[in-house]
Here is the input.
Amino acid sequence: MNSIVQNATATLSLLVRQITFQAQGINSYELVDPLGKELPAFTAGAHLDLHLANGLVRQYSLSNAPTDRYRYVIGVLRDPNGSGGSAAVHQLTVGEGVKVSAPRNNFELAEDARKVILLAGGIGVTPMKAMLHELELSATDYELHYCCKGPEFAAFKDEFEQRGSAGNVHLHFDGGDPRNGLNITALLEQTQDGCHVYYCGPGGFMEACRNAAAHWPAGTVHFEHFKAPAPISAPVSADGVEGFTAQIASTGQQLFVAFDQSLAQVLQDAGLPVETSCQSGLCGTCKVRYLCGEVDHQDYILDESEKSEYLTVCVSRAKGGVLVLDL
Here is the structure.
């Protein structure tokens, strides 16, 4: 039986050792073990869950080098229109204790890449910074393009500018008009043998990157959303029934999932061991294998090869009929 890949409930108790102003509205937070112990290893592109005092759980990418085994560094943009997560992080103080998950990675660097193009928009630069460290360590050819409104909005700007003289780090400031910034279409017009593209940023930036890279070979383009692009809607099945049946392969138990219920909640209510975290199809915590059924994938994390075997039960569901889960 193959069900949950990660255990999101296991947490680490860490301390905020340092808070650094990085850019307008953006702070970085250095988290360490209270006793100075080594932290669980991570790879570039990984993120962790931060459990906040107000009860919210939010995912933040690690920005430091994976070789830093005694600290995790995250960058957080305070969103005044958000649901309270980033505001709660910005209320943390040095010396305060926090609970986090062990890192997990759904945005890994390809091991066979001969060159990597990193495209970052705004706070989407945080996983790219960790990638930059790993690529430099492995001596892999790369170029980073970091797009934002102006230098005052560029997180970790000093570190990036130090690498600018090498010619592979480029900062693009558009003054608030993307037409004055990086021409992503021109940059990705020609595919390159052995080259992989990674992008992360706000909705409009993600759409521009997706369109510009649409002609690149399958498996060479990778992305990570830090916010669901649009509200998730529950579909009505083809036969007119507003719901579907989830069948548990190991027991034959059948559970009806109504149009206004999430599959994750129905499974949890039935006492099945399904972990959830982001509740928006972004983190991969609730990835479950399915054996039969037609799935309406509404996540923003699984690639096409994974969708034939897995779904994220927090947002995805069957289009109707019976969905057999490997639980």
